Amino acid sequence: MPPRDEHEELFYQIALTFVPGIGAKTGRVLLEQAGNATTIFKTPLKELRHIDGIGEVKVKGFKDPDVMVRAERELNFILKKDIDVRYHGHNYPARLSNCSDAPLVLYYKGNADLDATRIIAIVGTRKNTDYGHKLCEELVEGLQSLDNVLIVSGLALGIDAIAHKKSVQLGIPTVGVLGHGLDRIYPYNHKELSEQMIAHGGILAEFPSETLPDRNNFPMRNRIVAGLSDVTVVVESHSAGGALITAHMASGYNREVAAFPGRVSDSRSVGCNELIRTNIAAMITKAGDLIEMMNWSKDNKPKAVQKQLFINLSPDEQKIVDILNGKDSVHSDELFHTTGLANSLLASTLLQLEMQGIIKSLPGKLYRMY
């Protein structure tokens, strides 16, 4: 039976992920219609089936008795292990929330800010070369000068682990996105590293406990890595693999992608070279290139602008100017959540301000005052 206390909504959010046939997109439709998960489960099934995209077949999933059993078991697990559960409307990462296929629920253990000012995904092959190892470490070292930065990767062997380990060593918050539940660590020899990350960063998964690290889970994991981040950097990659999947997903989300070039004869540089050749990724050779590409240099901070200088702004334009005034830069996701404007209206308002020479658009979907 569902709990009758402060955990009720949490219980039903978890339960929604166990309903057969209800994936991330359908779940979000239901949540938008009902307002919250508790209301969904208390709405008669004959009413749910009339919601666009649901229908009779998907509604039948709510009758599965195993849904409540698994949700209760998972709730007990997260309460016992002190796991933070993020769902839409409840501390859900802003960047990821704008991805249409974002998970309904995230299980999180750690203390890093998932809405940090600058979030960089660093990905690459599991079988890196010494060249890739050196590039990865130098990249992380070069990013430590940035304020409020977070390094994200997949806690896999190779480039992922190098990025996490170097971040821990330098005291940079780093989060690993897992392809299984938080009741285990895969590969197992990263257990100590994961504990260090929890103390200064975190581990994150969309999968509930008892989920094994099945092969099909990792491409799903990669979309979270891409969606959480402002930019995805591919250090080394073969012609196919998880790093390229992540890069293409990031590009599909209109996020920036960067890659280190390599020798044309090196199989572990083929993927990076192809990303650069096809203009999916910008070529970088050092952290400074990435910082310049993303316009993150401290020398680029704008001077505070007196908002009263703009006397003919519409209320929506004024909202945006008030947010940007005096700040280094603000991501469009933050503007979306802070202003409350619909995406289409926000985009047109930003364009109007840009055409008036009041604001400037930057790489990475960032904006600042001129």
Outline:
This protein has 370 residues and is an alpha/beta fold.
Supply the CATH architecture of the largest domain.
3-Layer(aba) Sandwich
What is the straight-line distance between the termini? 57 Å
Q: Total number of helical segments?
A: 17
Biggest sheet record: 9 strands, mixed
Give the spatial strand order of the biggest sheet: 1-2-6-5-4-3-7-8-9
Please state the overall shape, judged from the principal axes of the Cα atoms.
globular
* Tally of structural domains: 3
Q: What's the total number of strands? A: 12
Share in β-strands: 5-15%
Percent of residues in helical segments? 40-55%
User: Kindly state the mean pLDDT as a whole number?
Assistant: 90
CATH C-level category of the largest domain: Alpha Beta
CATH topology of the largest domain: Rossmann fold
Please trace the helix and strand order, writing H or E for each element: HHHHHHEHEEHEHEHEHEHEHEHHEHHEE
Pick out its properties:
single chain; 370 residues; alpha/beta; DNA polymerase, domain 1; Rossmann fold; Arc Repressor Mutant, subunit A; 3 domains; nine-stranded mixed beta sheet; three-stranded antiparallel beta sheet
Kindly describe this structure.
This protein is of the alpha/beta class and 370 residues long. It has 3 domains: 1-80, DNA polymerase, domain 1, CATH 1.10.150; 109-293, Rossmann fold, CATH 3.40.50; 301-369, Arc Repressor Mutant, subunit A (Orthogonal Bundle). It has 17 helices and 12 strands. It has helices spanning 8-18, 24-34, 37-42, 45-48, 55-59, 66-80, 94-97, 130-143, 159-170, 191-199, 217-228, 242-252, 270-277, 287-293, 315-324, 332-339, 343-355, and strands spanning 84-87, 105-110, 118-123, 149-153, 174-177, 201-205, 231-234, 256-259, 282-283, 330-331, 359-362, 366-369. A 9-stranded mixed β-sheet has the order 1-2-6-5-4-3-7-8-9, with helices on both faces. Strands 10-12-11 form a 3-stranded antiparallel β-sheet. Helix 1 (8-18) packs across helix 6 and helix 11 packs across helix 12 (242-252). The longest helix has 15 residues, at 66-80. The protein is globular, with a radius of gyration of 22 Å. The N and C termini lie far apart (57 Å).
